[in-house]
Amino acid sequence: MFSKILIANRGEIAVRVIRACKELGIATVAVFSEADRHALHVQMADQAVCVGDSPSKDSYLNMQNVISAAILTKAEAIHPGFGFLSENTTFASMCEDCNIKFIGPSAAAIDAMGNKANARDVMKAAGVPVIPGSDGTVDSMEQALEFAEKYGYPVLLKASAGGGGKGIRRCNNAEELKKGYEAAKSEARLAFSDDSIYMEKAIINARHIEVQVIGDEHGNIIHLGERECSMQIRNQKVLEEAPSPVLSPEMRKKFGDAAILAAKACDYKNAGTLEFLLDANGKDFYFMEMNTRIQVEHPITEMITNFDIVKEQISIAAGNKLSIKQEDVEINGHSIECRINAQTTGLIDYMFLPAGCLGIRVDSGIYAGYTMPPFYDSMVAKVISHGKDRNEAIAKMKRALDELVINGIETNIDVQHQILENEDFLNGEYYTTTLTQMLGL
Amino acid sequence: MNLFNRKKYVTLPQTNFTIEPSVPDGMWAQCKKCDKTIYNRQLGIYKICPACGAHFRISAPEMLSIVTDEGSFDERDADLVPENPINYPDYVSKIAKLGETLDVKEAVVSGRCTINGIETMICIMDNRFIMGSMGSVVGEKITRAFEEAIENRLPVIVFTASGGARMQEGIVSLMQMGKVSAAVKRHSDAGLLYISVLTDPTTGGVTASYAMQADIILAEPSALVGFAGRRVIEQTMKQTLPDDFQSAEFVLEHGFIDKIVPRNQMRDTLASILCLHATKHTASATITIPKVEHYCGSETIEPSEAVEISRKISRPTSKDIIGIILTDFIEFHGDRNFRDDTAVVGGVGYLNGMPVTVVGTQKGRNLEENVANNFGQPHPEGYRKALRLMKQAEKFGRPVISLVNTSGAYCATGAEERGQGEAIAQNLLQMSGLQVPIITVIVGEGGSGGALALAVADQVYMFEYSMYSILSPEGFASILWKDAKRAKEAAAVMKLRPIDLLGLQIIEGIIPEVAGGFDNDVSFSLDYLKRLLIHEFSALLQLTTQEMLDKRYERFRKFGAY
Asked: Whole-model pTM above 0.90?
């Protein structure tokens, strides 16, 4: 096992990793920017090293400085958390060069899954379902109609040179496709000077369901069940729950099997998450992308499996075998996570974090008297509830949010209350578009 | 601040890691340009700074592996070492020692290779070997490479990286400049292609010989390129020089470099240029594209309307047109004399698979571009750039397309000092005898001598809403009627419309446009133009050179009314 770990992150995830290290008897090194001199993770760690100026690019993304901090403090491993350097292959290979263990997958696995087109090819080859697409350009109307006939409407016409949501046109039937095809081509020619078009099946009213996997360096890999993350705005998750309220045991097994297949296809080590889209029909699901790191919403999986993912990450990185087998994974009850995001920055003059009774956990990086700097991610706390079933988890969450007070900054607590009172949410009938509609955005 | 009351824990040693973290040697490099510390692996094989894009100096073997096909390099004269012509102390032992420590035995590596399957001779200088200085062996190896190229009708590529002549060999080193130049000349006279690539640094006797003698001169970004050293110039002139003085970009702006190519694109660029020069023009029988109907123009376009639309800022520029009618266009810069005039664009590309040279006046599509391109009014160096590229086309047997859209040659003191009249005159003289077909297309304004300087061609075509005249209608009205405001009236009497000029046999045909101008439907007009060019060049290429030149002579001989 390691005797000292550097945590190359800040905020609640840095605090989360430090807590795991303390429980494992491992010394911790925090890194911080000038703006974070008084941050909670700096206070909590055994040692702390300033790695640069306030903007992330000068500090938390400054690979040389982070590596130097590890070498100076003789840290044997670096936990990258999420965001920042967590999916940076250059950083992973720097760690390797300096004989520092990067707590995460190999640089090769990050590379293979980081590029979306690449990941899609890997998954397809492994037999994991991907969103049906033309795999290459569609060069004639006949070809376009043939594709739509095969996979069904609606379909998306996408400009090859487009990206970031630009150059996409949805066609709901053959009539629209006939009109849309030429129009999409000429639009693409004007916008990108390249009129090549490819096609994808449009998945509407989809659910975002992801599966947590974790593998060791001895070829063992298990999954820890799924998380339902459809409650989101502009692709930002707001509330997550586990297990998903809609998966049957058969479907749950299908997701798990697909996730294991996918993780094995890229020889995956350490913790990772496979994101899928579940079609409104509740049967077809497709691989979207893989996150090659710990995720924000990992606690809900921990709550229902009674399994500490961060501790296991560290143990695996030290070369140990997975501490449990697939058949040991048992799902108990239901867990919900509400992300509390700041909408302003400034001094938090008073704060009360809910506690008490069974089944409430708060992961946070703030304290009363702390001044939120304006440079980083807005998430200040994750409130997590765990109940014997979904209704109890919801009731506990409402109780916890009622108690939660953060004075001095604006937060999204009201939105979370609104979700917990929403009928569609209570019925478990919601999709990736639901929250946007609910808030009238 | 301390939030927590710290307790000292008793921790049991549990580490199984016996090697402490450390930084291995050679993990980091420092960029000389931006001073940043760079992770060596991020430099990659191209050794380009990820922070600022600066190109680190690399060795000849490294450059060879970047630009040549794997396993294709067949080295020549690998063991050639110099004697000591002026008995310079310790010279022989210094050479021997360098040969032992480095993976090269002299300051140039030469041989035969393929790039994308195309055979070529290649010489790459290595600045680690006495600053890449040019002694007898460097001169000899490069000369032999040119001689082998002449014998086998091959192109030559030379990567230069040199501080200049090798002092330790005295006057014998100076003579290498003359020796290599003579070989370059014979190679060029044999109609063969020579490409030089200037890398950091290219100075002194190398710049003043084979670096600057190539048909096409490429350079790496920011490479130092010059003759005299910066310090020498500063001390002689007693003034401080700007930072970019003698950078490749500075030299390109001054007209002596065709193109700056980043190292990671060098192989592809060389391959494209080699391929273009290895391709012969296609025989007419293989053309499958249908011919265009001859178009006679429409009488309904008023002269003043033609004038107005021909000047529209939204009219596609020469570069726009080139991008659509040619494939794989490579732009070349500079007149090799004074400056790169951005009012003239030129380069090479393929017209339906046939290599062509294209030159054209370049307007802008907005005020900023227009200011940068001097509103499409060339200086003398613009005409000289066009002529240089046309002579290059002649050497390699490529047809020439010239695109005209200019209100006229630029009127200014600088233009006069550098001989605007002489530049135009030379173009008329040289174009009338150029031994490859030339087709001129007037796209917008065809103003006076500034337009004719690119229009002494076998055939001249005009876009339907373009104009071609002795001078602008404003100028015409001003000279004859002393009132520039009567320009509209002047336009009506000047016979500047395509349809009028077709009647006067000044032009061969008209490119149709949709109502209001071809910016409303670019592909309609350019598809016509492309098909027209393909068929007309095909017909011209069936003539013998003498027949073609006689026809060109007759074309201009016939003009006159008496």
From this structure: no
Burial bucket for residue A155 (CB in 10 Å: 0-12, 13-18, 19+): buried
Decide if B236 touches A, using CB distance below 8 A: no
Alpha carbon distances (Å) from A23 to A245, A405, B515: 33, 28, 79
pLDDT of residue B14: 66
Residue A138 burial (CB count, 10 A) = 25
Write the ipTM. Answer: 0.74
Most B CBs within 10 Å: which of A32, A42, A73, A98, as the mutation test of the B interface?
A98
Mind telling me how many Å the CA of A58 is from chain B's nearest CA? Answer: 13
- Does the beta carbon of A70 lie under 8 angstroms from any beta carbon of chain B? yes
Enumerate residues 6+ apart whose C-beta is below 8 A from A248.
none
Q: B42 and A90 in contact by Cβ < 8 A?
A: yes
In this structure, is the dihedral angle defined by the CA atoms of residues A136, A141, A146 and A149, taken in order, positive or negative?
positive
- The label of the residue with tokens 């006076």 reads B448
For A82-112, b/e burial (b = at least 16 CB within 10 A) is: bbbbbbbbebbbbbebbebbbbbbbbebbbb
Given the DSSP bridges, would you call strands B344-351 and B400-406 parallel, antiparallel or unpaired? Answer: unpaired
Residues of chain A positioned with their CB less than 8 A from the CB of B12: 25
Which residues of chain A make contact with B24, given a CB cutoff of 8 A?
97-98
Check the CA dihedral A430-A434-A438-A439 and report its sign. positive
State which amino acid sits at residue B292: V
What the block records as the tokens of A243 is 């297990």
B40: nearest CA in chain A?
A94
The pair of structure tokens assigned to B26 is 């050679």
- Contact yes or no for A40 and B24 at CB 8 A: no
- Mutual orientation of helices A107-114 and A116-126 as an angle, nearest 10°? 100
Looking at residue B13, what is its pLDDT? 60
Q: Domains in chain A, ordered, with CATH?
A: 4-101 (3.40.50.20), 141-201 (3.30.1490.20), 207-438 (3.30.470.20)
pLDDT for the residue A218: 95
pLDDT > 80? residue A189: no
CB contact under 8 A, B17 and A2: yes
Distance CA B543, CA B541 (A): 5
Q: Per the CB < 8 Å rule, is B21 touching A70?
A: yes
Q: Which candidate, B30, B113, B27, B102, places its Cα nearest to that of B60? A: B102
Q: What does the pLDDT read at residue B283?
A: 47
Helices B380-396 and B420-433, interaxial angle, to 10°? 20
Distance separating alpha carbons of residues B40 and B27, to the nearest angstrom: 6
Mean pLDDT confidence for A7-34: 96
Name the stretches of chain B with pLDDT < 50: 283-285
- Provide the annotated active-site residues of A: 293
**Amino acid identity of B201?**
P
Contact A74 B20 (CB under 8 A): yes
**Tokens representing residue B188 in the block:** 């060029």
The predicted-structure confidence for B229-257, as pLDDT tens digits, reads as follows 888 899 999 999 988 899 999 999 999 99
Sheet strand arrangement including A27-33: A47-52, A27-33, A4-7, A77-79, A101-102
Q: At residue B186, what are phi and psi to the nearest 5 degrees? A: -60, -40
